[in-house]
Amino acid sequence: MSPRAALGLALVATLICGAAQAATFHVAASAAQGGDGSPARPFASIRAAFLSGRLQDGDRLSLAPGFYGAPTIRAAGPRDAKTKASGRIIRDVVIEGEGDPRAAAALPDPGRGAAWLGKVVIHQAEGLTLSNLLVMPRPRPPEPAPAPIARADDGTPLPLPRPARAKRRGPLVLAHRTARRVALEQLEMRSAPDAEIARWTRGVDWRRNARDGIRLDGPDGAARGNRLTGVNFGIQATGPRAVVENNEIDLFGADGIRVLGDGSRVHGNLVHNCVATGSGNHDDGIQSWSVGKNRRAGSGVVRDVTLSANRIFEWDRPGSARLACSLQGIGLFDGVYENLTIENNLIVVDQYHGITVMGGKNVRVVNNTVLNRRPGPQARPWIMFRAHKNGARFGGNVAANNMAMKFSLPDWTLSRRNLRIRYPGLVIRDRSAGDYRPRPDGPAHRAADPAFQPPRDLNGAPRPASGGDLGALESGD
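^ Right handed beta helix region, sequence as received from the core. Prediction below:
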């Protein structure tokens, strides 16, 4: 046997042995202390499982339905009995809930239908995955009516003014910088039950009650397939090489997604229904900015980020849009931004900034559709390139194959086959029915420059090699 073949067999054997050693341990919020993780004697908490000494790299924790409080997860084993040193990090552990979190969120007691956590803070972890969990603070009981302490001239009791509630601070899931390769998958997240969110009819209600959703500060973090409802900021990924994909953020009061780390990817997300809270934040569907050594915005460089196949709708709920904010689409205002790709995004907002890049260097903005959410001719939103706020201009920027209500592209940006939409009905199939594909008889059909188009559209449909349609979607004809 050759040395190469022997090495291959050894690697296969190692993988097989590792898979065979992986075990599933059980956790139940109602269990007694001292369990061993078996179905008959489950651990009483996530912390108890990590401190049991039984978990190994790659093991799985199965959480039975119930309320688990607001755990701080440190994926470290028990301390050394002699030296008292911290236990080693147990890598690649999967914490997965049983039940249906989305259905459970509507129950009077969500813990009867899913593993329910009030919030989660993660320290000292590597390769940890949280999956199929409901993350929602436990509803607080209604405040009692204040007791009267004075009377009017006619003897009518005068109640005390109702005190303002303190804002519930901190994200629902926070992964600190010491948490590496953390993955959050298929989480059902909300600041409160739907019935309570429906009662937030004023901006002050949102400012007091809406929580931030996800914050990933460590390297190589991932948020995949999560659903966030009734939050303030949606997903914030500040660490390098983050992946934010296929999430839904519905009813949010600030920015939908923030991505600051080099080498990050934001793909396939649905960001919709931005609420005007009066907080003073300029709300963006997706936002990024650079930070230098002085920690000031616009003083550094963000590199190698991809924003692709995202859908951003300022408001798409049926009925009144009275609560709708004025949402910006993709706002990149504080560069430098180097080697960014912005492609196949569908943006329907009422603000001026559909896609704005200030301080771009080798930035590609290709095959995006940017529309106003209001029907008829509009002069916004636009696709815009501008110099850095310090006046610096950089080369290598491209805007090609886009459709928008307006363009602002300086002569130092390469512009190819961009279509300004004056009358959307002549270009888009049926926006009232949610069909944003180009009309096959319209000016966007087969008008793209193939040298700049991505190989597939927003939905994954292949683009003709000879040149597909302008914008994020192929017409299909």
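Residues 11-19 have pLDDT under 50 and may be disordered.
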